[in-house]
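Posting this for the archive.
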Amino acid sequence: MTGNKIDSIDPTDEVLPPRSLVLFGLQHVLVMAASPITAVFLVSKALGFSDALTVSLISATFLICGLGTILQSFGPAGFGARLPFIMVPGGAPIAIFLAIAQQTDVQTAVGAVILTAGFYFLALPVFRRLLRYFPPIVVGTMLLLVSVNLVRIYGGTITGKQGSEGFADPMNVGLALATIALTVIFARVFTGTLQRISVMLGLIAGSAIAIGAGYMDPFRHLRRTGDCHAPASSVRNAEVRLFRRPAADRVFDHLDGRSDGADHRHGRDRRASGRRSRDRARNHPR
């Protein structure tokens, strides 16, 4: 009876061994992290956002993705599928958002997103009931159109914006194609667990090729902070050079000059006062 119970467990509810959980979870996180970062970079480059705004947008995107993932996983009050879905920005909505933002402004595009989300809440229950009447050919065609749209959008992130510096750089295109090819090879050659993590293996192999070709330096930040054990005077001087502004430099130099002059005058006055006291003592002995 126990064997029948194990056999009847749905694959969705199956608990994998710890080794497989770690590998699949790592692959899931790598794929998930790549989508928000790429989407934000795409939007920022297309709309000309500053670096500071891009960093803030990445943080906000990861926060909303996490909240959406929790909502999908637990499904409170009927919201969510109660499945381990990772919510990330989609390709088709990004294309529509950019089209609206470029034709009007960012505020209008954000408003359109909010209105679309409200419409989804109203139309999704109806669409879910009508989905059974759509044949597989319709659903497959819809997924194919979304995939083609994704290839067009993320292909633009590989080649860069037309007319910009480094547009269609052969090395960038080659690295992307090599990553895709290695992922397909791993999926076809390997079996079992390695086949299931072929996406992660392809990302690792592509990154290794980029490091070997000098297009990726994962230890650059460590080298920048490698002088953290320098003497205190060196650290202090580096901090002054880093945080001082040119105007402040002039003010500090001016104050230093005044201080040196004041110290010099103060010492000279003390010496003169000492001489006068000695003269009075000689002229008026007790």
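The longest helix spans residues 246-283. The chain is about 75% helix and 0% strand.
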